[in-house]
Amino acid sequence: MIKCGADIVRIDRLDTINPTIRARFIRRVFTPRELAQAGTESEALAGLFAAKEAVPKALGTGIGKVSWQSIEIIHAQSGEPALHLHDEALKAALARGLTEWAVSITHDGGLALAFVVARG
Question: Which residue(s) pair with 74 in the sheet?
C-alpha cells in the first residue's frame, strides 16, 4: 500500500501575522528539535509546516486526529528531511500498516511545498 499527502504554504503568511500570535503558533506546532534546526526563519518554518500538513493527509486522518507535536520533521546532515512520528500519529500509522516514509520539501516564488509518501 502506498499513500501520499501534499501541501503548499505561502511563506509570507508567517511574516504578516501578529508577533504574539506567531510566537504562540510556533510553540504549538513545532517541536523543540525542529526549532533548534529551523530557528525562526519563515522559509524553513513554512516548509516544515507544509510537511506537517501533508502527513495527516497521507495518514488519512486529517490534523484533528493527530497533534502537530506528534509529527516531527528533522533534517539529516545531508539536508534531507526525515519524518519522526510520535504518540497518536505513530499509532495511526502503525494501525494502517504504514512503516516507511519519504518527505520532500521545496521553496520557490514565495511558496513552500511538501510531498509525503508512506508505504506499508
Answer: 82
